[in-house]
Specification:
Strand content: 15-25%
Distance between the termini: 43 Å
Shape: globular
Radius of gyration: 20 Å
Structural class: alpha/beta
Number of helices: 11
Helix content: 25-40%
Strand order of the largest sheet: 1-2-3-4-9-10-11-13
Number of strands: 13
Order of helices and strands: EHEHEHEHHEEEEEHEHEEHEHHH
Low-confidence stretches: 257-261, 263-271
């Protein structure tokens, strides 16, 4: 069976905590040379190091095409501030921003803030879905032509084209409108790891890209089908959902063609399935799974970023490009364009045009 849809590839550029953004810049530029869709930068309140959003805001002007997706924890944070920060990243990157929503489940992290106790994962993922929902509403709250910037009259915005979102969530309320104009992509790309049960519903409902952990093409296909059904149940077009398999990769070995892919190394707690082999081995796995229709692509976490990302780009990706299975250049300037996703219209502008109410 031949692939009927484009292959999407992304990579994590984190690793041990770094306090010099130049390392992240170098890795992002390397991924950009390989025409990857986006890079992620993992983050959490339990992890030392600079804030992922701030780091990728530094990476943005040093790159021109690669998508930039920091992890943003929705627990203990203000949804209005999350929305503003992600919109700002979209502006400084000229439309290449996304964000990976995550939750904070531990008591130790809760004590850092002292605002609320730790809560069950199901409750936290419900809240994360609400943050994604209100974020999209805030990004829509400025119509495209709301900015006037008329020096002669002193008018900056057309207030009739700014909209209150008046959102009531289970743990927060947001009135709006946003303080940042509508981002270049309309709505920056939302990424959620939908492997765990509690995350599955918000992923199907709100995410543009869903990451899953799978040890076989059959398991990946089952997860993808389940997510697409969930998206359709929420009134979404399932073809607007991109499902990527997450792999932690160790390309330090020679080409070994080990087991059929993922049983060649140990499971890493909290980091998903583990692949160990060489760049050609990895290209074979990606080819087999994608051609079989199991996935839309892969999100790869190099176990040693400087070594393994170079081997991914110059080895695995180069081989996929040689086989005409992966593009050799970015098809557009925004992350949505890389992913084949359209730019959504503001719900408030659409409601005003139809005379209805959003």
């Amino acid at each position: 069976m031949s692939a009927t849809r484009p292959l999407h590839l992304a990579a994590e550029i984190g690793g041990p905590p770094r306090y010099d953004a130049n390392a992240h810049v170098a890795l992002a530029r390397l991924a950009e040379r390989g025409a990857l869709d986006f890079v992620t930068l993992n983050d959490s309140f339990a992890r030392p190091g600079p804030d992922a959003l701030a780091v990728l805001a530094r990476v943005a002007p040093a790159t021109s095409r690669i998508g930039l997706v920091p992890t943003v924890t929705t627990t203990h944070t203000e949804p209005f501030h999350v929305s503003s920060a992600v919109a700002t990243l979209d502006w400084v990157s000229r439309g290449r921003a996304g964000w990976q929503a995550d939750v904070s489940t531990t008591g130790a992290e809760a004590r850092l803030f002292g605002r609320r106790a730790a809560a069950p994962a199901a409750e936290l993922w419900q809240e994360a879905g609400e943050v994604a929902d209100v974020g999209a509403r805030l990004w829509d709250s400025w119509e495209e032509d709301a900015e006037i910037r008329d020096v002669a009259t002193g008018r900056f915005v057309d207030r009739a084209k700014l909209h209150y979102v008046d959102f009531e969530g289970s743990h927060f309320s947001v009135r709006g409108p946003a303080i940042v104009p509508r981002p270049p992509q309309g709505r920056p790309v939302t990424v959620i790891d939908g492997t765990s049960g509690p995350a599955r519903e918000p992923a199907a409902r709100h995410a543009d890209v869903v990451l899953v952990r799978a040890t076989s093409p059959e398991q990946a296909q089952s997860l993808r089908d389940d997510l697409r059904r969930g998206a359709a149940a929420h009134g979404r077009d399932p073809d607007t959902l991109r499902v990527l398999v997450s792999l932690t990769v160790d390309l330090g070995d020679a080409e070994t063609a080990p087991e059929p892919g993922l049983t060649s190394g140990p499971r890493l707690a909290g980091r998903g399935t583990y692949f160990r082999g060489g760049p050609v081995d990895l290209a074979e796995l990606i080819t087999r799974w994608h051609r079989g229709g199991a996935v839309d692509g892969f999100h790869l976490t190099p176990i040693t970023p400087e070594r393994d990302l170079e081997r991914i780009v110059n080895g695995t990706v180069a081989l996929l490009q040689h086989r005409s299975l992966f593009r050799t250049f970015h098809p557009g300037g925004t992350l949505r364009e890389h992913l084949g996703l359209s730019r959504p219209a503001s719900r408030f502008a659409a409601a005003a045009a139809s005379g209805g109410k959003s």
